[in-house]
Amino acid sequence: MLKAAIVLMLLATIASLLSGLVFLVKDDENSTRLLKALTVRVTLAALTIGLVAWGFMSGQLVSHAPF
Q1: Is residue 2 part of a domain?
Q2: Which residue, among 42, 49, 46, 50, has the nearest Cα to 16 in the 3D structure?
């Protein structure tokens, strides 16, 4: 369940990134939609990092890296 939530958050972050690109190209200079897309993207990224940290701390996510 946690892994699915992390993947959904990453997909939402990518969608916000793409919408910000569209707003950057299409909108006029007085529009605030690009700033709102950036705010959403930063919030989603922070929540994703929080979910990953919570997953490691709770033991639901485990690293199998050899180093």
Answers
A1: no
A2: 42
Residue 27 located in a structural domain: no
Over residues 12-60, the pLDDT tens digits come to 999 999 999 999 999 888 888 899 999 999 999 999 999 999 999 999 9
For residue 63, tell me if it sits in a domain. Answer: no
Q: Are 41 and 13 in contact (CB under 8 A)?
A: yes
Predicted TM-score of the model (pTM): 0.83
Instruction: Tell whether 44 is covered by a domain.
Output: yes
What tokens were used for 13? 């972050």
Determine the number of helices (DSSP H) and then strands (DSSP E) in the chain.
Answer: 2, 0
